[in-house]
Amino acid sequence: MNSIKSTEIFSNGKISQIITGDKISNLSRYLPPETVVITDVNVNHLYGGYWSNWPNIAIGVGEKIKTLDTVNEIYRRLLEYEVDRSGFIVGVGGGIVCDIAGFVASTYLRGIRFGFVPTTLLAQVDAAIGGKNGINYNGFKNQIGTINQPDFVLCDPVVLQTLPKELLTDGISEVIKHALIAEEKLLDFIENNYNAILSLDLQTIGELIHHSVKIKTEIVNQDEKENGERRKLNFGHTLGHAIEKVTGINHGKAVSIGMLTAAEISTKKGLICSDDLARIQSLLKLMNLPVNCPSNRLEIIDAVAKDKKRQAGQIYFILLAKLGKAIIQEIGFADLAEYIKESKFLGS
After folding, report:
1. What kind of architecture, by CATH, is found in domain 5-158?
2. Phi-psi region of 288 (alpha: psi -120 to 50; beta: other; left: phi over 0)
């Protein structure tokens, strides 16, 4: 039996509550009468009965719908429903739904209240946590967005049982990221319980989600707007986003390769040892995550050049000082390009 646990993010005098272990069937307890549900067609088919008393907007699936066109259509529907400043939006779905719902709520009528019910592991441990809400533009991820905290995030591990296996491993990639940057004990937990995690043992998954959420909320509470400490959450993502753009593979798989390459760079800089790098590679393989990318290195370099975190030829790049501790270093883009060209995990 999973116990209900709660973690908070404090933002501008407001408390955002992340609840782990409560059930999606209890969603109505969290919703005011003026709620509109934003979900996707697949989630609506599986769980739509839980919000049949509220107006709902079911969007398509995949990164291709995370656009201004989708946002405009939702605005139109909200106007049809005559949603005013007292309205409330709840996004029920994976990271794409949560990103879109959070962005719409943060911009419609200059901002109305909202909450999330993430239905993928990736969303429960990362995408729905921390207040980043964004949409893609011109083929690049999250180029337009806001930082605005939801009233609540309801994480029900039971809904993960409907996930395809590859989407489960996408979420595990982000959990491993949290372990690598902040808590080696979580790394030990994953290694010691990998069978239970992959078989979706609810007790183990519940603990995994709670510990991962706790790490992220502690970082966000220190640096909500990403001026310093929060940048560490980008570990593996500078290269991961580029790999995702070039190859089209899922986010978590791209981040897996990005993390391993960032760890490789950490090794070359003398921050961690080769045994640490080998341990990371072994764990990623154990969790059915990829450890190399066959794409052309020059295409990856070109995609990194368009990264939104690049400033005046420099990138705030996240490295490992040791397992369980990340550091932020400014790396020149030309130097990073050389590391990419030399990496044994990237391309041809």
Report:
1. 3-Layer(aba) Sandwich (3.40)
2. left
Unique residue bearing structure tokens 């908070």: 8
3-state SS, residue 322 = strand
**pTM greater than 0.85 (yes/no):** yes
Query: pLDDT by residue (tens digit) across 150-181?
Result: 999 999 999 999 988 888 988 999 999 999 99
> 292-334: per-residue pLDDT in tens?
998 889 999 998 987 656 666 789 999 999 999 999 999 999 9
The β-bridge relationship of strands 314-322 and 325-332 is antiparallel
Quick check: 166 and 126 in contact, CB under 8 A? no
3-state DSSP assignment of residue 67? coil
Model pLDDT, residue 348 = 63
Percent of the chain past pLDDT 90, that is, above it, reads 87
- Give the residue carrying structure tokens 């929060």: 230
Query: What percent of the chain lies above the pLDDT cut of 70?
Result: 97
Distances 84 to 46, 69, 71 between C-alpha atoms, Å:
29, 21, 17
CA pseudo-torsion sign 6, 17, 95, 138: negative
Which stretches of the chain drop beneath a pLDDT of 70? 1-2, 307-312, 348
The C-alpha angle 161, 166, 167, rounded to 5 degrees, equals 60
CATH topology of domain 165-342: Dehydroquinate synthase-like, alpha domain (1.20.1090)
SS percent in the chain: helix, strand, coil, step 5: 55, 20, 25
Exposure string for 21-32, b = 16+ CB within 10 A, e = fewer: bbebeebeebbe
Residue-range domain boundaries for the chain: 5-158, 165-342
Let me know if the fold of 5-158 is the same as that of 165-342.
no
